[in-house]
Write a sequence for this structure.
DNA sequence: CTTCTTGTTACTGA
DNA sequence: ATCAGTAACAAGAA
């Protein structure tokens, strides 16, 4: 699932690959992916180019020339953005092709640039979307996001303020995009493990020391995951179609029933919190 | 066949 | 106001 580290990896890839490249045409194979007017989107994008690729939480914000319009892209669970130069198979690594020949049956939107290179929006479950917005609409959307990890605003003081008085579980708070932006199910579990705190704990019952560990773990886990270009469990790939490498560093997520690598004694348990599968070590997490 | 998975929003009931 | 729980969206894996 693309969470902050995966979306950030794609953002950096696209920033390098498509900024300044003139769009020749857009094929909309699955209209429902586009929220709002399809003709307006087509008209605005064709012949235009992106000047900058930004991100807020798990949302990509592609800025168009003169900054008057923005293309929002959310990948939800199974969305992919894969860029290919004309006639080139860029995917692979170890000589094995990791993606199908594109477009495939999940390629719902296709951008073709004037140099004949292409950007494919693939989405198996079709939950992801694209939306064209103006500056005002963008600000409305951005208002709903909580503090952004790995930025200047993600301070210990702000973090404490966000957590203050929350009676709900730590897991629910970490997943709540209105409080902290960008953390999803994988990294929420990994952050709790690193902090040594059970995700089921009520936030208002956590000590200041525990909160501090959670704050530090947010920074370390997310930074590390970006360094490893994200986690591929099912569908996530970067803009070249390559898998992320963080999966080998996962300590609890998808390790239910396996021995904890830290204490080497307990077995990772899986329960449901806030409606989500939640993994933790009963010995390492209090 | 059923159940589970996940990001987000919407809705209901406490 | 605040929170928990669930349905919905879709498709595939087990």
């Amino acid at each position: 699932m693309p969470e902050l580290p995966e979306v950030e990896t794609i953002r950096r890839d696209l920033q390098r690959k498509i900024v300044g490249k003139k769009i020749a045409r857009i094929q909309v194979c699955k209209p429902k992916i586009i929220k709002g007017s399809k003709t307006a989107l087509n008209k605005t994008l064709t012949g235009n180019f992106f000047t900058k690729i930004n991100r807020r939480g798990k949302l990509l914000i592609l800025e168009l020339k003169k900054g008057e319009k923005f293309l929002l892209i959310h990948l939800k669970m199974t969305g992919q953005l894969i860029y290919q130069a004309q006639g080139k198979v860029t995917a692979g690594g170890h000589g094995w092709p990791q993606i199908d020949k594109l477009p495939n049956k999940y390629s719902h939107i296709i951008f073709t640039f004037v140099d004949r290179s292409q950007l494919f929006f693939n989405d198996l479950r079709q939950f992801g979307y694209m939306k064209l917005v103006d500056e005002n609409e963008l600000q409305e959307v951005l208002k709903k996001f909580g503090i952004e990890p790995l930025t200047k605003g993600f301070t210990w003081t702000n973090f404490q303020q966000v957590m203050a008085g929350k009676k709900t579980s730590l897991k629910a708070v970490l997943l709540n995009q209105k409080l902290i932006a960008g953390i999803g199910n994988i990294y929420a579990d990994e952050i709790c493990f690193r902090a040594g705190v059970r995700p089921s704990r009520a936030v208002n019952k956590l000590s200041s020391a525990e909160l501090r560990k959670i704050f530090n773990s947010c920074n370390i886990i997310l930074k590390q995951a970006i360094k490893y270009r994200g986690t591929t469990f099912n569908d996530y790939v970067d803009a070249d179609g390559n898998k992320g490498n963080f999966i080998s560093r996962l300590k609890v997520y998808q390790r239910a029933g396996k021995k904890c690598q830290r204490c080497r004694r307990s077995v990772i348990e899986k329960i449901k919190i806030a409606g989500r599968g939640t993994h933790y070590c009963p010995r390492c997490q209090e």
Summary: Chain A has a mean pLDDT of 88. Residues 156-280 of chain A form a domain with the Helicase, Ruva Protein; domain 3 fold (CATH 1.10.8.50). Chain A has seven helices and eleven strands. Residues 76-78, 123-127, 167-168, 172, 234, 274-275 of chain A lie near DNA strand C (CB under 10 Å from a C1').
